[in-house]
């Protein structure tokens, strides 16, 4: 299974460790909020709003080097707009992977 | 260059800000999590560039674009490639960056900005458009972006809410205006010859009375535009 990495963040930072720390703390703060917002919308069956949050999460998957997860999120976001939740469990697996990674680097 | 960043994601703002730090002459004056706050700032402050996200709650990046008077140059930042078509409808949009933005792509964007702001680099500004430096134009036909080389365009005719672009052997009908496309075309070879026509004057076959012949098209010259056209031609 694909695992998150910090390659992109290191590329952007160019070795600036202060930025890396600050940026990771932003992700640690932003990701759980977005995940909860997504789950709440999903529970309310507001799939249009869910798609909007998946759109934001998609960016974070790219940042964390999850190429397959990123592609999955693109498809899932589009599917949600048409009321299709078939990719839900696959996407939730990716969310779980990111959550574990974020806890590990905390 | 004075810039602002507008994006509802703090992580996205942080990345753009960090990338900007590496660019000499680039100053990030402020960052905003929504379009409304940016609009308020822009009422009292002038900037040269906006890094603008499209997908934001309540007001989108396009809403901001439509609201700001005399918009500065804009670089769109988005996770959605589908808006590229719409983006190029606006002459002041210099580039379109898909997130996550790589250093290499950002540097390419800065080179485009340098061209847009003149040869003195990002520390100076001019109204020169980046399109003056390009050799081609993308048009939106049935949700496809089709590349047209400036040299291949013969003429453009206004037809109601549409324009018709004629190249050698092809015609393209695009939902746009002559005014918009004029801003995209280089002055060095294009000229509005009539209220309804822009021509590539390097493609003129001959001029007779008040009309020009371009390939097999006879295009009227309006009386007021004729003197400027004659000035631009290399007359013996």
UniProtKB/TrEMBL annotation, chain A:
Database matches in Gene3D superfamilies: HPT domain
* HPt domain mapped to chain residues: 16-106
Q: Keywords, A to Z?
A: Phosphoprotein
Query: Any keyword Phosphoprotein?
Result: yes
Q: Which InterPro entries match?
A: HPT_dom_sf, Sig_transdc_His_kin_Hpt_dom
Modification Phosphohistidine, positions: 55
SUPFAM superfamilies, per database record: Histidine-containing phosphotransfer domain, HPT domain
**Entry GO MF terms:** protein kinase activity
> Which terms does the UniProt entry file under GO BP?
phosphorelay signal transduction system
Name of the protein this chain belongs to? Hpt domain-containing protein
Protein source organism: Flagellimonas allohymeniacidonis
From TrEMBL, chain B:
- The keyword Iron appears for this protein: no
Q: Can you provide one Gene Ontology molecular function annotated for this UniProt record?
A: DNA binding
User: Domain of life here?
Assistant: Bacteria
Cross-referenced PROSITE patterns = HTH_LYTTR, RESPONSE_REGULATORY
Which Pfam families would you find in this protein's record?
LytTR, Response_reg
Task: Please state every residue range assigned to the domain named HTH LytTR-type.
Answer: 137-235
Q: Which InterPro entries match?
A: CheY-like_superfamily, LytR-like, LytTR_DNA-bd_dom, Sig_transdc_resp-reg_receiver
Specify the Response regulatory domain's residue ranges: 2-114
Tell me the SMART domains matching this sequence. LytTR, REC
Q: Which UniProt keywords apply?
A: Phosphoprotein
Positions carrying 4-aspartylphosphate are: 53
Per its record, how is this protein called by name?
A: Response regulator transcription factor
Recorded source organism is Flagellimonas allohymeniacidonis
């Amino acid at each position: 299974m694909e695992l998150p990495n910090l390659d992109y963040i290191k590329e952007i930072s160019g070795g600036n460790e202060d930025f890396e720390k600050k940026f990771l703390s932003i992700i640690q703060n932003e990701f759980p909020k977005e995940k909860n917002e997504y789950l709440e919308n999903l529970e309310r069956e507001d799939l249009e709003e869910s798609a909007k949050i998946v759109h934001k999460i998609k960016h974070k998957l790219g940042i964390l080097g999850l190429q397959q997860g990123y592609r999955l999120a693109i498809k899932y976001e589009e599917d949600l707009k048409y009321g299709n939740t078939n990719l839900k469990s696959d996407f939730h697996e990716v969310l779980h992977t990111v959550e574990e990674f974020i806890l590990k680097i905390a | 260059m004075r810039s602002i960043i507008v994006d509802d994601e703090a992580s996205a703002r942080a990345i753009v800000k960090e990338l900007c730090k590496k660019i000499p002459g680039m100053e990030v004056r402020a960052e905003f999590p929504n379009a409304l706050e940016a609009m308020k700032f822009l009422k009292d402050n002038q900037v040269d560039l906006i890094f603008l996200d499209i997908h934001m709650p309540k007001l989108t990046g396009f809403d901001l674009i439509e609201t700001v008077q005399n918009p500065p140059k804009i670089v769109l930042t988005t996770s959605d490639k589908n808006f590229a078509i719409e983006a190029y409808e606006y002459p002041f949009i210099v580039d379109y960056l898909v997130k996550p933005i790589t250093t290499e792509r950002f540097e390419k964007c800065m080179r485009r900005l340098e061209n847009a702001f003149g040869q003195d680099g990002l520390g100076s500004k001019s109204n020169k458009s980046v399109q003056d430096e390009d050799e081609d134009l993308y048009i939106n036909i049935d949700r496809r972006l089709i590349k047209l080389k400036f040299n291949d365009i013969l003429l453009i005719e206004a037809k109601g809410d549409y324009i018709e672009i004629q190249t050698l052997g092809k015609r393209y009908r695009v939902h746009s205006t002559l005014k918009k496309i004029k801003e995209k075309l280089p002055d060095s070879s294009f000229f509005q010859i009539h209220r309804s026509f822009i021509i590539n004057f390097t493609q003129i076959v001959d001029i007779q009375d008040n009309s020009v012949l371009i390939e097999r098209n006879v295009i009227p010259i309006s009386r007021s535009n004729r003197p400027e056209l004659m000035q631009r031609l290399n007359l013996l």
